[in-house]
## 1
Amino acid sequence: MDTDAALESQIGQWRGYVERRRAISAADADEMEDHLRDQISDLSAAGLGTDEAFLVAVKRMGSVDDISREFAREHSERLWKQLVLMPAPDDGATRPTRELFVVLALAVGAAVALKAGLATLDEGVVVRNVSLLVLPFLAGYFAWKRRVTPRGAAALLVPFALVAVVTNAFPFVPNGSTEVIAAIHAPIALWFVVGLAYVGGEWRSDRRWMDFVRFTGEWVVYLTLLALGGGVLVGLTIGAFDALGTDAEWVVEDWVLPFGAAGAVVVAAWLVEAKQNVVENIAPVLTRVFTPLTILMLLVLLAAFATTGSVVDVDRNLLILMDLILVVVLGLLLYAISAREPHLPPDLFDRLQLVLVVLALAVDLLMLTAMLTRIAEFGFTPNKVAALGMNLVLLVNLAWSARLVLGFVRGRRGFGSLERWQTRYLPVFGIWAALVVCLLPPMFDFA
């Protein structure tokens, strides 16, 4: 076998192994193969033989991707093992077990914190602080997994402390509008702190923030599955105890539900991380199923809105419902962007995304018209200000997203511009939520 044929055979074996990884797409494999060939070419030009250049190039690939490491394990009879199988802290059977123990400890910690809050605090105080009782443990998991420095971990605690001071120092009117609004927006603001822990030291990386967007969607999927499975199990258990003449509902309400809910927040995150190869296949399926359905829903809602005859007479519940739908649409858009291969050309699904964004933009404009009209007639309230601000934030995002998607579909710009816009706009949502928590209650005397 001549030298070129032997090299092509080696590269073919390496690529075949890469493509068997479910997390690696054809475009990824092409890019990695190009990088490998460039390395081989440079090393050959420097005087190395073909075989030696190939082995050194694979070693360098292994330093940036564990695929080469795993390929070396499968071919341990070759020199690959000596050249590629570098010592790594992730190797060995202890790390998965250690991570499981860490996850279980943090899940139990979150559950104990929530149970202690329920046992010692008033209901309104617990509602305002529920995210403070649980999310620090989730942020702690990512800080541990990403090996965040002690200084970085201390910085992550600052937002939690500030939110704790604000939500507990304000003299809220019990069950007042501002208390409810603060309770809703505090978890949104703190979720971005979890995002900072997730991206580790790469907080400027658009790709890592898009990974966090995908993680959020997949975390919701896993949390929902855990909730459904836990609900079925709890229902069967209560039924079995009832059949035996024993009341088990108090145990479920006082212990199982708080421990299960808080613990599931951390466990779901661990499942997403542990099953990354499998979960990555969920995102494209979910977006392709729900995008057409959401388009139909928006069309129906726009038709229902048109039949009201006057924006002032629109039912308040319809406005709330459409606000929630806009949030869902934004989440679906972000999830679709995070799941898409950026190197592929535009297709039918991208055109559906454009339709979705345009319809959402139309809904947002109608919502803003209705809100401004109602404010002009009835005046400001905390709920109206919060909803108005959220719709303005969404309007900017959707309007620019529509422009970028249109440019991508028409072949005038790359997909990366849309991805960068979304990741760099994400902090706006967190900042808005923080402003609502900190400024809105005193503006309306905490009523």
## 2
Amino acid sequence: MYVLQQRLGHNLRRYREAQGLSQEKFADQLGWHRTYVGGIERGTRNLSLQALEDLAGKLGVDPLVLLRPSSD
């Protein structure tokens, strides 16, 4: 597995949960399937830069924040 994909997935889950969103609700907001969002969070999906920007925009964070190592 790739480090950035894992890091993105971990950070995505943290931010999504902090906003009280289920995978399903978040996926609906993006117009994506829940299993696709689950794959991103597990680090098994490879995203385009556009998709990364979409995720970050829905969470209200800078896309680079999702790629940084987390402190937990």
